[in-house]
Amino acid sequence: MLEELKSLDITAAALFNAYQDWFNRLHKSNKELDIDIKFRLRAFGNDDLKQLRYREEWAIDRGWKGKCPAGLHISSTIPEIWCDLKESKDGHIILPPHVLAHEVMHEIYNLSHRTVYPDDLVKGIY
What we know:
The protein has 126 residues and is an alpha+beta fold. The chain is built from five helices and five strands, in the order ααβαββββαα. It has one domain. The termini are close together.
C-alpha cells in the first residue's frame, strides 16, 4: 500500500482527512486527558546536519548505533523531539505533522500511561 501511495499525487489535506476518518471509526470514550507538556523541538532541513548533531549530542556518549530517523523522541530533563523540515515556496518552515504528532504522543505516553503506546499505531509501516 505504501508503494501505491507514493505514486499518487496526494495532498496533505487529503492525508489529514483520511487520518481523521480512521480516528472517527475508533470506539468512543467519555474519558478526559489534561497534561501540561514541555519539550524542545529540533527540526532540520539538512540531514547531514541532523546526523552530526545527533551523533555529537546524543549517540556517541550513549553508544547508540545507527542514524537519527525522520522523527525521534528523546526522554531527557527537557524532552526533545527531533524531526525533518521542509520549506514552502515563500520560505516558511513546514514540519511533518504525522511525525511531529507521533513524537509528541511518545511524550504524552511517558507522562501518562493511560494512552496507547505510539509505536503500536504504526507497526508494519517500516
